[in-house]
Amino acid sequence: MASLNCFLVAFLMALSFSSINVSLAARHLQQLPPLPPMPTLPATTLPPLPTIPTLPPLPSIPALPRPGVLPPLPSIPSMPTLPNVPPLPSIPSIPTIPSVPFLSPPPAPSTP
Q: pTM of the full predicted structure?
């Protein structure tokens, strides 16, 4: 996706530079006399950074009491028993379909 964006930007720049007005403006800028040199600026000194005050120490974490023996885990309640369900009736068997004899096609006539 990034290569597509780069291609579109390059295409847009090439299209904008192909305009006659842009090329004439660039030629006009190239033919101007050179600009005067930049004046030298005085060096400035930065004020010192403020010092960070020291923070008070963090309070200590109180120790929690540790019991020697853990309480017993709760027991899982027993599941109720299911009532006796009568057996399902048997499904009647599907009668077999008689097979159809396979008939072979008649022999093709021989060509002389």
A: 0.20
